[in-house]
Queue: 2 jobs
Job 1
Amino acid sequence: MSSTSTTLTRDASGEQAPRLWSSRFAFVLAATGSAVGLGNIWKFPYITGENGGGAFVLVYLLCIALIGLPIMMAEVMIGRRGGHNPITTMKNLAAKAGISARWQGLGWLGVVGSFIILSFYSVIGGWAVSYVGTSATGTFAGADADAVGALFGNLLGSPSTLLLWHTLFMALVMVVVARGVRAGLEKATTWLMPALFVLLLMLVGYAFTTDSFGQGVSFLFSPDFSKLSTEGVLTAMGHAFFTLSLGMGVMMVYGAYLPKQVSIAKVSIAVSLMDTLVALLAGLAIFPIVFANGLEPGAGPGLIFQTLPLAFGQMPGGTLFGTLFFVLLVFAAWTSAISLLEPVVSWVEENKGISRVTSTLVAGAAIWTMGLLTILSLNEWSGFHPLGMFATFEGKTIFDLLDYLTANIMLPLGGLLVALFAGWALRRDSVQDELGMGDSAMFRIWYGLLRYVTPIGVLVVFVYNLI
Ligand code: PHE
């Protein structure tokens, strides 16, 4: 921890925040740890597969650059200026700017949204945990697509097995959050991210040896807009928020610990680039395997669990690399899940006057319980489509609905509010002061994107999906 960390004053009340990141690098690692997770390796490939490939990827990349990155800068900026949990930060900043206290609704949206996301995120994290053991015992060796598919089917079919792994994953997350996020997190991410990169590169290398590499690449990168629906565009935009951990107050919480002298633009660009790179590498690893084995790109949430084991089953040293890969996937999911629990816990802790450990237990137990809905959606309740009477929600289970509600509605809405708050509600000079870029061209481009492009983009996509 740096010497500045105990001397910086966070807000007008003179409160001290002795918990700053030790360096710019530490923040980048932690924010990347939050951003890179199941969203990149599990979700990106399967929604790309479901939405026809190239055109979807193009829209997603545009959303990252034109909407996600500007909003990330805004969210980190708000967090650093406010210096607290999202709700308190919004309340304080609104009071200081002399505007409506209703802006703290944005903080609420984040706390509730993180709560819901973590409830299903933890169940999927549990799948990854269970695959560590499956891989380590050599189950993938020589297995064909049917065997691998059956393995996954058995996992989803057993509520008690899913419950066990969900519980274990949630416990892992709670342990770190109860102890205070930064200490453990900084250390873990330092080696985690590079290791994940290396393993993904290896998988891409394997995919290159299949005769379907070209087909995979063209699936990902040659856009065919006839395959992209308006819902696909919404999914791409929602995913830009999900994968960058935006709109939930997570970047606000992490930004609150960012030392003043660090450039928000630089760290945000670094985080967005790494996140995008990991997602694209995952896509490059997975689609060649999908095509080489005659699998269906639109197979849904099980995609990586039904394709990567085939690669591990065929490559030399596959048992070892497969195990390592799933261990790293668990770590990546873990650091993201920690960032999802943090806003909830920091709010409970600061507002209910209970200790961090108790707050973690209370919040964690509630989220764990809500996770049961996702578990049952995968088996006993898989035929239950609560909103099936609306065309948009036809065939969607509770799990699908929670995913839709958060990624396609709450995150973009949160991001929209961040953009409006930083772009229109806060004074330009205080925004400029916090970003420290002066009135440079970079600043003006960012400000223009934030004030016009981002809100209009989000609204247009919303409206198109309503009509
Ligand atoms: N960005 C994380 C991922 O891609 C998920 C996440 C969403 C984390 C929102 C925090 C907030 O897996």
Job 2
Amino acid sequence: MTTVSSETNVQALEAANLLQIYRRPNVVFERGDGVYLFDTAGRRYLDFVSGVGVAALGHAHPSLAQALAGQAATLAHTSNLYFHPLQGELAARLAAHSTLPRAFFCNSGTEAVEACLKFARKASGKTKFVALKHSFHGRTMGSLSVTWEPHYREPFAPLIEDVVFADPHDAASIADAITDDVAAVIVEPIQGEGGVRPLSPEAVAAIAAGCARTGALLIADEVQSGMGRTGRMFHSTTLGLQPDLMALGKALGGGMPIGAALMSERVASAVAPGDHGSTYGGNLLACRAALTVLDELEGGLLDHARAMGEYLGDALEGLRARHTRVTAVRGVGLMRGIDVEGDAAAVLQAALERGLLINRTANTVLRVLPPYIVTAAQIDEAVSILGDVL
Ligand code: PLP
């Protein structure tokens, strides 16, 4: 295996050859262990980003590494032309948690959303979608159409035209938007990119009532909030919503690219062979990863994530009480946002220099998404670094 070890080489090679679409800090990671990442100089970082909510088991988790090595040495991919033993098992185990009995597997969050939108149109016979202001559902054309921020959408217009954005803070705006011609309402139970904003009880009630009144399908985008991130398997069901479709990604594969659209029997019965598909979707390697993540969650990790989520919430409340620059703390479980006054980007950089990785969203919101294996001591360390930086 060739390794390009120095930071300068890596960055020069990227600058010369990669589409310049990401702004990355001046660090190159080459190894991970649990909640830690290590850069090319061997320096250790506490990872409270976990690859944007993906590495639920942390890095180089022994069970995942062993399961993937075993699967790769047995059979990695056959395409969806043939049966293999893992898709049915994974679908059944996800159904047991979600009560949505049918699954379609794909490779990413945006593909899961895309599939939900297509299946909702087919099942309803209608075309219009209601989404929420400040939503983020992905970068492909369908997902982008239901994503709020104009700077994501406008350069790529025209997108799907039949989309109405309702205000999540105004129940009347939600009720007005859900009319008889709506195919589906799509919501993130906790808006992630939009600033880590959980749906309010009023919004939940207005969405549920609107769907019941008009027959509009409900799509829960649990790509970021699902698979245990909040300490429960899915946040939509914790809120009391009963989605007809659910989009999953990120933590589902613990680092292997896999997404899923889960759906009710009613939706599934409207989709026929050939209507949709994927070459890679749900291959053996990806399914093995997801099954291993489920083994860990069911084997105690979900309870640990819930306990650590509460601990993190308390610790961040303490931070807010001590630091005037922190104006609000939001979120659930291990998905938290911290509103800061002043330059949030500078906070990120200063935290990085002190060995802590955090993320920023909606410009002024620091976002923390630690791996579920995080310990109380590691949360204390991260919050202490954040305190110093602030
Ligand atoms: N939906 C939500 C709620 C997300 O947070 C994201 C990614 O951040 C996506 C969809 C898109 O997922 P992906 O980047 O895997 O396509």
